Amino acid sequence: MIDIINLLPDNIANQIAAGEVIQRPASAVKELLENAVDAGATSIQLYITDAGKALIQVIDNGKGMSETDARMCFERHATSKIKNIEDLFHIRTMGFRGEALASIAAVAQIELKTRRPEDEIGTFIEIDNSIVRKQEACACAAGTNICMKNLFFSVPARRNFLKSNPAEMRHIIDEFIHVALPFPNIFFSLTSNEQQVFYLEAGNYKQRFLQLLGNQYNTKLVPVKETTDYLDINGFVGKPEAAKKTRGDQYFFVNNRFIKSAYLNHAVTSAFDALLPKDSYPVYTLYIDLDPSQVDINVHPTKQEIKFEDEKIVYAFVQAAIKHALAQFSISPSLDFSLNADIMQTEAVSQPFTQQKQETVTASELYKKFSQKNQAHFIEPTESTGLKNWKDFYESRLTNESVQLSVERPQIETSLYSNASQLPSVNCQLLNTYIVASAANNKFLLIHQQHAHERILFERYTANIQNRQVVTQHNLFPVTLELSPQDAALLHELLPDLLLLGYNIELFGKNNFIIQGVPADVLSGNEKHSAELLLEQYKHFSSELKFNQRQKLIHCLARQQAVKAGQSLTDKEMRILVEELFNCDMPSVAPNGNPVFVEFNDEQLLKMFGR
Ligand code: ADP
Ligand code: MG
């Protein structure tokens, strides 16, 4: 018998381990930017070629590395940031696992130039596949300049898993935003294929927010600022009118680290309560700072998920801070909250956080305080306030919107359905949403008009694309579309499929597009709105069913163009809808898998009446 176990060579072990930390170019971008921040840089430049597949370069003016450190930093578990397990509970740096550079060096070609400000001469190192090819002294600027070339060149299987350039670029921009938002005092730039995407002068939090997320928020932000002994919350929430129909710009940072937390997101949304228009999401960037011993960031290699020692307290503080901010900066003169004036005197906000208090808190005292109706942070409108008016305001806006929609609603075209006698015949419309239609054999159908129309349009658009019969109406006056860099990257990625659908959109300089034509179904005057809506819907497309990019777009366009629930239809429109529906290949399910109609027969009805 021979023994069969080998120890893997270092470079293979590193490649395997790299899989956890470096999944795509954006993961390397995150690690390199964080290293530059940890090095105390005040200027960080990021250069990208081919969405990071060819090159990711980060140049910082931080503290640099000695000759020995420059070699050491590529070893696995090589870190200057912790020495023992205790340090893990006091982490103030972004990195600490000592894995990033080792992982990157295992899956790319690296060139590093680095010099400490106090040294005269710097170090140059070239590595590929974890093997040092060259190390020599070099003249270079103080700080670190690291180039990472040909990511995954030695792991073709992983390279093949990468998405299109625009898709990978979107991930990179996301990571860039996640690092740049919490460090407004650092200058950042992002250049992609020699085009400047971001150039962010150092400034304050608000300036950084506007630089990254757009000046349109300038007058629509409410500052959030609460300082307590347990934690500090800073940042901004968008006023209700800045809320988006989709979950867009929502960012949480804990000790400057971007995190994802559905739980805290709920705290923010619930603080808005009835102020938010229906089905919309608040915009926010919130920076939570607390004693590092109260958080465990080491629960995930990329550290986007973290664990709080006591999540409920953080929830309560976040919710209270937002309520306070919204009330204090009374977001509208017509709003009149019965806000307790001595809000800042609340124990939770003003008193020192002693060990003893901490114990009381973990027994959920504080949580109760924040979540009980009669405490200061709990804001409720008085009888006479405008809150109801706010609701009315939004409701009336919503109805106005649907009035508009019904004016603009697409006409349901007559079909050439020839066997009309077998079709369910339309009886009436219920609740402006359901069509009651009677069918053969004492049956009747309750048809959901929106689902029905989505099915019809979905099949029609699919067939048109297959038969190359898509009609584009060319705009007399081309419409321009200005997008954020993130959205621009996405739109760029979708252009070929959009063209198939009938949208003729061209890139026009950085982040700008020209809409030359739109599908024939889009009403004139609605070109821009339609394109923007399609993009938003696409971004937040969710379905149990699996669709490819093109199917998703068809789906979104069908949803956009379909008659909506709540629209009253004429008899003729209903008849045409039913005809067209039963002309479909799959009339009974909407494209997203929901039922289009429910069938009843007379037996069921008789039973209901106890007969
Ligand atoms: P970690 O950041 O978790 O310590 P990394 O592999 O990212 O691990 O980096 C290893 C070490 O290399 C860091 O601890 C730091 O001392 C050094 N280092 C990395 N990048 C830089 C940089 N841009 N400037 C100065 N030192 C750096
Ligand atoms: Mg690091």
CATH superfamily of the largest domain: Histidine kinase-like ATPase, C-terminal domain
| Tertiary shape | elongated
CATH topology term of the largest domain: Heat Shock Protein 90
Give the number of DSSP strands: 22
Category from helices, strands and their pairing: alpha+beta
Bound molecules: adenosine-5'-diphosphate, magnesium ion
Q: How many helices does DSSP assign?
A: 19
- The low-confidence parts are 332-355, 357-420
Q: What's the rounded overall pLDDT mean? A: 81
Order of strands, widest sheet: 5-4-3-6-2-1-7-8
Name the helicity range: 25-40%
Rg over CA atoms: 29 Å
CATH class of the largest domain: Alpha Beta
- Strand content is 15-25%
In whole angstroms, how far apart are the ends? 80 Å
Number of domains: 4
Note the main sheet: 8 strands, mixed
**CATH architecture name of the largest domain:** 2-Layer Sandwich
